[in-house]
Write a structure and sequence with these properties.
Strand content: over 45%
CATH class of the largest domain: Mainly Beta
Strand order of the largest sheet: 1-6-2-3-4-5
Number of strands: 16
Largest sheet: 6 strands, antiparallel
Radius of gyration: 20 Å
Number of domains: 3
Shape: flat
Distance between the termini: 49 Å
Helix content: under 10%
CATH topology of the largest domain: SH3 type barrels
Length: 188
């Protein structure tokens, strides 16, 4: 399906230079002099690279129809293995197609984008905020809640993140998987 740069929006997938790209950010620019253009940040869905690209206004782009399906992460061997919760079909996805593979937990539900032309997975996106348990960190200091100081903490998935000083071993925290940063403490 062909369309123009005027229809660009976040999440749009299209073919360019034999690769499929997904629009992460875009900005329509109309300078005082010269023609209008669209400044974009694109993600290559075959290798995960993110690039900046500028399109002249009105350029035709070849839009790819995609479908999103919910899958559950099962385990990791050479690739990451997921199961469709509707028909229990299992698929294997390479690490490069997953937005934050280090934050995957067994049983986690993720959204997998499929190219409807060949029914191949194009990317796998984790939920934005995910709960993890802190398995190791230096002891917190009582009353140290107002400072903006952080310390390292190891999570139950093996990833190390920076957390505020009041976080202790055994605490549950939320992490933003898109940035890999501490979000907040979970009250249980």
């Amino acid at each position: 399906m062909a369309t123009t740069t005027a229809d660009i929006q976040n999440g749009l997938c299209f073919k360019m230079d034999t690769h499929i790209w997904k629009v992460i950010e875009f900005l329509h620019v109309k300078p005082g002099k010269g023609p209008a253009f669209v400044r974009t940040k694109l993600k290559n869905l075959s290798n995960g690279k993110i690039v900046d690209h500028t399109f002249n206004s009105g350029v035709k782009i070849d839009v790819v129809r995609i479908e999103t399906r919910e899958y559950q992460f099962l385990y990791k061997d050479d690739n990451y293995n997921f199961m469709n919760l509707d028909d229990f079909e299992q698929i294997s996805i390479p690490e490069g197609l997953i937005n934050a593979p280090e934050f995957l937990k067994e049983g986690m539900k993720c959204i997998v984008l499929f190219n409807t032309e060949d029914d191949q997975p194009m990317s796998c996106e984790l939920p934005t905020l995910v709960e993890y348990q802190v398995v190791y960190t230096e002891p917190g200091i009582r009353g140290d809640t107002a400072t903006n100081t952080f310390k390292p903490a190891r999570l139950d998935v093996g990833v190390e993140v920076r957390v505020p000083l009041f976080i202790n071993e055994g605490d549950f925290i939320r992490v933003d998987t898109s940035t890999g940063q501490y979000h907040d403490r979970v009250k249980k």
